[in-house]
């Protein structure tokens, strides 16, 4: 391009042309092939997906207008898919604008124009990570993000047993479901009861399994202990058995009538505990079972970490007159926590949503008068009952949203405070 053309070339005009229609800015920059590709892509989008996106946005906004003919759930899903497609389209459109402007700026600076082959090679060198990431990102959007968005959307509708498409249409109700959760007695009592037990369950069960794993790891790591390999193998055995098998076995053992705990053990001292009938004893049994299920992983984790603690540190502590407790407090424990804090946080988050043990042991029972949740239901198992047994989809979605925000907030806060996170990249 001549010097006169370069001086008159305007990057802002190139960007404006790309805003008017994708590819026009590239044609203005005399990037003919790239401009034609963008133009064809926009025309193809308008012809093939324009109508779908338009109808999807309409369905998402209205959730249908004719009962019996329009299905609000389908319209909601199509609307969310339209949003995802629209998001991709906007991202490509923005890239088209930026590309046109940068090309124009390079022309003004007098940089040599790349050939088509050179341009392809440069784009591949710069963008090959995005090429390989994009298919996985697309799958993630439709497999994980779309169901998540659908659940979030249901939390703001009136979808329940008495208002089910296609016989009736759904309506957007804003934050009414969340308001009812903490104001209406039928929901308030159950929500706060289940939420309190979920917190207690998470704190006690997880802390006990971590504490038991730590104590056993410290004992087995003691140089005075013999047969370490046999002991470690024996203690990890509960981890080798599938959790659902262990839970079902324990459910039979804790059975009030024929369970071996009442019939064979406690009967010797004339005691019969209502493990499955009294909420307190059911909760106690659940905490003990989770401690049994969870400690082998923590034990294996801590055992591996303890092998990496330098013996020189302990020798230096002995020279300084450090006691066994001081060595544990200032050497062993900080080293363990530094290396395992993220995984321990995951243990708390996992137990907060530990549906399997609650459902398989006693299905969240025993029943509680006046509540839609059982005496040992945690939030996630209550969501299951609301969805598959009571068909209260809107309230289940609202609770799921609250549940997700709590776990995300707790995990993010704890990860930010861990030393491992703060020093990442500096080790």
From TrEMBL:
Membrane-traversing stretches: 35-53, 73-95, 130-156, 194-221, 233-254, 285-309, 330-350, 393-413
Pfam families linked to this entry: BPD_transp_1 (PF00528)
Where found in the cell? Cell membrane
Chief place of localization: membrane
Q: How does it sit in the membrane?
A: Multi-pass membrane protein
| CC per GO annotation | maltose transport complex
Pinpoint the ABC transmembrane type-1 domain residues. 195-414
Q: What is this protein called?
A: Maltose/maltodextrin transport system permease protein
Q: Which Gene3D superfamilies match?
A: MalF N-terminal region-like, MetI-like
Q: Which UniProt keywords apply?
A: Cell membrane, Membrane, Sugar transport, Transmembrane, Transmembrane helix, Transport
Q: Which GO terms describe its biological process?
A: maltodextrin transmembrane transport
Q: What is the organism field in this record?
A: Lederbergia lenta (Bacillus lentus)
Q: Is-annotated flag, keyword Membrane?
A: yes
